[in-house]
Write a structure and sequence with these properties.
alpha/beta, Rossmann fold, 2 domains, 6-stranded parallel beta sheet, 5 helices
Length: 209
């Protein structure tokens, strides 16, 4: 297959890229401002494209002749997310889906997360529905992006896929490294939502160094 990975220079996009490199797939790697962590000139199956998801015309070269898009690109850790998430999480997806449909991409995989359904517990787990009522702006805009993908592909040949991984563990993963930083400075706290309420914990065991 010919696969386009957006956000290929980012944290999870780069993990997927490294996983796919030794295979037989042709890879289109989409970057914006961040350079790829490692030069890939020795891989004949790799093409790197610089583009801006806010500029639809810039996306055509990367999307042409592609079979599948895996969409990671976005902004995660930045102040005042309400200023930009409706653009980076929703409009960027809309732009990319439009161009992908225009050039005949067959499958679009959107990377999301379970919180789009709102708070979940072991007794009330996420079920994959699209009618959640999340409280955070991150989850609200991710849910809206999922809805955009399914709406725009409803009458097309493109297959929409949404993946909602809860947590991806491993050295170098941004969330894990953030936890290491907080633990080292004794800044990682746990609290209850209200007095007497149950607090669900997800324990991350990290090596001492």
């Amino acid at each position: 297959m010919k696969i386009l990975v957006t956000g290929a220079a980012g944290n999870l996009g780069w993990f997927l890229t490294r996983h796919l490199l030794p295979g037989n797939h042709d890879l289109h790697l989409l970057t914006h401002r961040t350079e790829l962590p490692t030069p890939l000139g020795e891989y004949p199956n790799v093409s790197v494209f610089k583009a801006d998801l806010g500029d639809p015309d810039s996306l055509y070269p990367a999307c042409r002749e592609v079979d599948c898009i895996v969409h990671f690109a976005g902004v995660l850790f930045a102040p005042r997310p309400e200023r930009f998430l409706s653009i980076t999480n929703i409009e960027y997806v809309r732009n990319l889906v439009n161009i992908a449909q225009d050039v005949g991409v067959r499958k679009f995989i959107l990377i999301s997360f379970p919180h789009v359904e709102g708070e979940s517990t072991p007794d009330d787990p996420a079920t994959g529905r699209l009618d959640g009522q999340p409280s955070s702006i991150h989850a609200q805009t991710r849910l809206a992006a999922e809805q955009v993908l399914f709406q725009q592909t409803a009458d097309s040949q493109m297959v929409p896929v949404v993946l909602r991984p809860g947590m991806i563990y491993g050295r170098g993963v941004l969330m894990i490294e953030a936890a290491r930083w907080l633990l080292a400075r004794r800044l990682l706290g746990v609290w209850q939502q209200s007095p007497g309420s149950i607090c669900w914990l997800s324990l991350i065991f990290l090596p001492a160094q």
